[in-house]
Write a structure and sequence with these properties.
- The chain is of the alpha+beta class and about 220 residues long.
- It has one domain (about 5-220): Beta Polymerase, domain 2 (2-Layer Sandwich).
- Helices cover about 35% and strands about 30% of the residues.
- It is built from five helices and eleven strands; from the N terminus they run H-E-H-E-H-E-E-E-E-E-E-E-H-H-E-E.
- It has helices at about 5-50, 60-70, 90-100, 180-190, 200-205, and strands spanning about 55-60, 80-85, 100-110, 115-120, 125-135, 140-145, 155-160, 165-170, 170-175, 210, 215-220.
- Strands 1, 2, 3, 4, 5, 6, 7, 10 and 11 form a nine-stranded mixed β-sheet that branches. Strands 8-9 form a two-stranded antiparallel sheet.
- A hairpin with a 2-residue loop joins strand 5 (about 125-135) and strand 6 (about 140-145).
- The mean pLDDT is about 90.
């Protein structure tokens, strides 16, 4: 047996022991950056998107924290905002980069015409832009969890469209769903006010379901 095969066997046997430690270390690192710079990242994204008149709103964990706690969630690691897919244009990533963000990736369905998600980062804090399409009284976007083979699958998430309203946070105004209680209940359940530290939205969102669509990821950093 060659040395490389022996090394691989040892590595596979040790995985159950070292992988949880690596994941924990990564979470601690990302969470520390989020606590230190999360507010600044959100404000910077707001400045970038408003500069080009792109309508956006707070979504997912960022909406949950701001609405429920009046601050970003302490155990989170990224920032979430949403934009209508019909408002997408390449100037979005160009302006985000101009404002200091690194353009990390995008995931597209049907070349972005059916669905898309973009990821940026600043000061080691990630921010995701979820793109929604409106259909009658509902909006839908997409989540991209990994399957057992580490391949992306597509979950379609529907929310009831109630319009938007303003909320004050960080001494400025932000767009949020007009009925945030309904929006948060649909994704997190009626007990959304009770913090759950190990919640993983791409797998656990209550108002999402797997669909028979393929996606493609483009990485830029």
């Amino acid at each position: 047996m060659g040395a490389s095969k022996i090394y691989q066997q040892i590595k596979n046997r040790l995985k159950p022991y070292y992988l949880p430690l690596l994941h924990k270390a990564k979470f601690v690192r990302d969470n520390r950056a989020f606590q230190n710079h999360g507010n600044a990242v959100l404000l910077k994204a707001k400045a970038a998107l408003e500069e080009i008149d792109v309508f956006f709103w707070l979504d997912f964990g960022t909406l949950l924290g701001v609405y429920r706690d009046g601050k970003l969630i302490g155990h989170d690691t990224d920032v979430d905002v949403a934009v209508f897919l019909v408002d997408y244009a390449p100037i979005i990533e160009k302006t985000m980069v101009k404002h200091g963000f690194t353009y990390d990736r995008k995931i597209v369905i049907d070349d972005g015409t059916y669905g898309m998600e973009q990821g940026f980062s600043y000061q080691n804090v990630k921010i995701d832009i979820f793109y929604y399409s409106k259909q009658n009284n509902q909006c839908y976007c997409h989540l991209f969890p990994l399957d057992n083979q580490k391949n992306y699958v597509v979950r379609e998430l529907y929310t009831t469209f109630t319009g938007f309203k303003k909320i004050s946070f960080l001494d400025t105004e932000w767009n949020i769903p007009k009925d945030p209680e309904l929006r948060l209940t649909e994704t997190y359940g009626e007990n959304f006010r009770i913090p759950i530290k190990d919640w993983y939205t791409p797998d656990a969102a209550l108002n999402s379901t797997l669909i028979n669509k393929t996606c493609h990821e483009y990485r830029y950093s």
